[in-house]
Design a protein that fits this description.
The protein is elongated, with a radius of gyration of 26 Å. It has a 6-stranded mixed sheet with strand order 2-1-6-5-4-3. The protein is built from 3 helices and 6 strands. By secondary structure, it is an alpha+beta fold. The protein has a single domain, classed as Roll (Nuclear Transport Factor 2, Chain: A), CATH 3.10.450.50.
């Protein structure tokens, strides 16, 4: 075999090895992406479940039940309020609607976890109607859920008129 042919065969062999290595790297990246998607789906399902449990608390007009889903140092912001209220006692002041006879509907628009899943943002619309069908509230807002002791609690609660 001539030196030129040997050199060409060596280059082809190296080229095939590089392509094979690139394919392996691509497979690893795709596998990692699937793991991330599965994790995000798991977090989204967890937040969806927690939101449904909170809705059951609201249906039962149980303020303490709902507040159990909030972090002790929750930050609550409402349209027209003087500023940011901190803590469950302050948040309770903004939740008197729970004790009213209202038909409540929550529509979750998006659930977005952080890369490390320690923070999750949930965007939603919440409508509340009196039994006669007139609107009491039509809000848009978000909850920022924070992982606390392997569980998620609402750390930021922001709603305003839609």
């Amino acid at each position: 075999m001539s030196p030129v042919t040997a050199c060409l065969l060596a280059l082809l062999t190296v080229g095939f090895l590089v392509v094979k290595q690139d394919a392996l790297v691509l497979e690893e990246v795709e596998a990692d992406a699937l793991v991330v998607q599965e994790a995000e789906r798991g977090v989204s399902e967890t937040i969806t479940q927690l939101t449904q449990e909170m809705e059951a608390c609201a249906d039962n007009e149980d303020m303490d039940c709902i507040l159990a889903y909030f972090a002790d140092d929750v930050r609550t912001m409402r349209e027209g309020a003087a500023g940011v209220d901190i803590g469950k006692a302050e948040t309770r002041k903004h939740m008197k609607w729970i004790e009213q006879d209202l038909d409540i509907t929550k529509d979750v628009l998006e659930i977005t976890p952080s890369t490390d899943e320690s923070i999750v943002v949930e965007q939603l619309i919440m409508t509340m109607k009196f039994p006669n069908g007139t609107y009491a509230h039509n809000w848009k807002g978000l909850f920022v859920w924070k992982k606390v002791n392997n569980d998620y609690k609402i750390y930021i609660d922001i709603f305003n008129d839609n």
